[in-house]
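Subject: Sanity check before I submit

Could someone independently write out the C-alpha cells for this chain? I want to compare against mine line by line before I put it in a report. The sequence has 250 residues.
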Amino acid sequence: MEIFRAPLITLIARPEFLEPAHLRVQWQGDASSGERLAEFAGRVCYMSQHNPASRSTAEYLENIKKQGHGSVLEHAVYVLLIEGISRSCSHELVRHRAGFGYSQLSQRYVDESHAAFVMPPAILGDAKLEAEWQAQVADAQAAYVRAVEALMQRYEWVSDKVHRRKMAREAARSVLPNATEVKIVVSGNARAWRTMLELRAGEGAELEIRRMAVACLQVLQREAPALFSDFEIYVADDRQEAARVAYHKV
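---
Independent answer below. Compare away.
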C-alpha cells in the first residue's frame, strides 16, 4: 500500500508567446513566454510598445500587480499535474471555478485495489496515530476489494465485461475513505492561480490544501517569477509552511 506524505506537482504546459511582427515591443531584461505575453497584452491597452519608461518585464508586471490590473494576467495559462492529494483535498480545490479547468481520476473506471492514500499533515510524526491510520485505510481498501469481487459475481449476467467492472467499481468505491489519493490535471490562468493561492496557502486554510498550494506556488514561482514574486513562503506558528501575498486580489 503506497502512502503519500507530500504532494507531487509537475508543470506540464506553459504559454507560448508569438509576438506579432507589426507590434514589436522594446523588451528589457529576460522573461518567460507567459510573462512576455502578459506584458504585451498590457501594452496593447495603451499602445506603449516603445516602452517609454524602459521597464524590464519584471518591473512592468510588478507595477501591474501594484495597480491591481490583473486582467492582463488572464492570458497566461499554466497547467499542473497534481498527484499525492486526497479526494477531500481535490474536492476543495475544484470549488475554484473561474479561470480553471480540471480533469480528475475517476474511481468509477479505475481499479482502486492498489490505490494509494494520503496521510493528513496533522498525523505525520506521531507513530501511534500513523499506525492506527494506516490500519484503518488498509481495512477500507480490503473492503473495497471484497466488494468488487462480490459485485462482479452478482453482475455476472452482464455480458459486457467493461460495463460489469464499471458497475462493480462504482458501488465498491463507497467504502473508500476521503484519504484515497487522486491525480488531477489543473489548468488555470495566472490571475486564477493567484486567487487560489492567496486563499489556500494562507494560515487559515485546511492543512492539506495549504501544503498543496505552497507546493504549486513553488513550481509557479520557478516558471514565472514576475507573475508570482510578491508571494512569500514562511513557516507559520503551527510549524507548517504558509504563504502571504503583497498585492491582494490582483
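---
OP: Matches mine. For the report I'm noting this point. The chain has a mean pLDDT of 95.
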